[in-house]
Amino acid sequence: MTLQQLQALALVVDQGGIRAAARAMHLSPAAVTKAMRTLEDEAGVPLLLRGSRGVALTPAGERLLARARVVTRQVALARDDLQQAAGADAGSVRLGITPFATLTALGEAFAWFRQRYRQVEVHTIEGLMARVLPRLRDGTLDLAVVAPDVGELRDGEFHCQPIRRASQHVVLREGHPLLALPATERTAERLVEQEWVLTAAVRHEDPPRLAAMFAAAGVAPPRRVLVCETLAAMTLLRHSDALSIFPAPLLGHPETRGIVALPASPLHPGDIELTLLTRPDVPLTPAAAYFAHCLAEVAGRGDGQVRPAG
């Protein structure tokens, strides 16, 4: 198997077909087709299913694609590393980031990073652990800023750098009927009767933060839970009587306008800790290391101020 064959496989999938992959590689469609057939011959199994609507991967093709992405990314990183070490402003950084860090740190960190690296491409994937971790594991991400829950990280799998701890609040929209009640009537039992909008399900095995919060108050988790992405959660909260849980630093942010903390809540969410993750077996390029430094500094301070490049 050659690097070009693996690159062709990844691009056929990413671009949606042989012709588009050929354009991306500056090759003829015949050359890409030959590369795919040679790759299949060497693999000894079909990798692609060819049809009128394009190509799809066989199960063997899916397995090889995961390896191909790791190989092609590591070759690109090796090239970037050598160029950046020689002073070149080139290459790319691929970052996975939790929405909390996106809203509170990414903008300032990116502005700081751009003072030193103006031409390096930055690719971000926003999401929670379930979306980010697989990409960090397979090498398609260089680093990630996440808020891991209990049991979500395997011991020794990643280099973990804690960068910020934040308290959390039960939140609801301004004007919510609960806000008109006396604090003594805002009981835990009343709260769990409400609909909740959360970014993860409430699990019962090895209780993480959410389940522990309800258990500590002596109540069962709410039965009505809508699980969605962070942006959707913000929208739904503003237009319904649902409850949710947000990190305290998000309240007062422009994106959370109209959402407030429930005063004197009988439910007490645990703190979350933003953590910078990198793979211990893959050194960061100079640009990726500098972006990690910018993110850690800005998130750690939490003041939104950009320092000049050092």
From TrEMBL:
UniProt keyword terms in alphabetical order: DNA-binding, Transcription, Transcription regulation
Gene3D superfamilies: Periplasmic binding protein-like II, Winged helix-like DNA-binding domain superfamily/Winged helix DNA-binding domain
A GO term from the CC aspect: cytosol
GO molecular function: DNA binding; DNA-binding transcription factor activity
Pfam families: HTH_1, LysR_substrate
HTH lysR-type domain ranges (all copies): 1-58
Family stated for the protein in its record: Belongs to the LysR transcriptional regulatory family.
The protein, known as: LysR family transcriptional regulator
Organism of derivation: Rubrivivax albus
